[in-house]
Each structure stands twice: as structure tokens, then as C-alpha cells.
Write a sequence for this structure.
């Protein structure tokens, strides 16, 4: 959002919609983040079912370690039924 003051635009920062969350200083979920980014690299940044499963596992790890607020994954863009079937394969 920007307001005009004296002919120049003034940027007014707003906090993120989900708030901020702590960095993973101890690397508790780093292995999952690295697997996810490697998956994206291998697929040319195309999100595949394998990459989606890794993203889900990474977010679950962050929630379990209190590195982000616990939230139902369906509100983070994950379909529970589809993700459960993928993890069974």
C-alpha cells in the first residue's frame, strides 16, 4: 500500500497475513526443506505429487517443533485425502 505525500509515494509496510514465525536456527526441519528444494530443482520448479508431499512434511515438522503456528493443512493449500493417499504409496 502506498500513499502520496508531497508528490512522492510513501510505502506503508503491513505485517504478513499469517504473522511471522521463528527461523529454524537448530536445523530441526532443514533436511525436509533441502529435500523439497532439491525436488523442485529436479523438476524444473514444477510441483509434483512428490514435491507436494515433501512440502506437507516440512510444514508438519515446523508445526510439531513450534516453529510456526499449528494450523489445519487444508488452510495451507493441502487436500487431506489426496495427501494421505500419497503417503501410503
Amino acid at each position: 500500500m502506498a500513499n502520496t505525500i508531497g508528490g512522492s509515494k510513501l510505502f506503508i509496510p503491513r505485517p504478513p497475513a499469517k504473522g511471522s514465525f521463528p527461523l529454524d536456527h537448530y536445523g530441526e526441519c532443514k533436511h525436509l526443506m533441502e529435500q523439497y528444494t532439491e525436488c523442485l530443482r529436479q523438476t524444473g520448479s514444477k510441483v509434483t505429487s512428490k514435491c507436494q508431499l515433501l512440502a506437507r512434511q516440512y510444514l508438519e515438522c515446523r508445526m510439531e517443533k513450534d516453529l510456526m503456528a499449528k494450523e489445519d493443512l487444508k488452510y495451507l493449500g493441502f487436500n487431506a485425502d489426496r495427501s494421505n493417499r500419497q503417503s501410503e504409496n
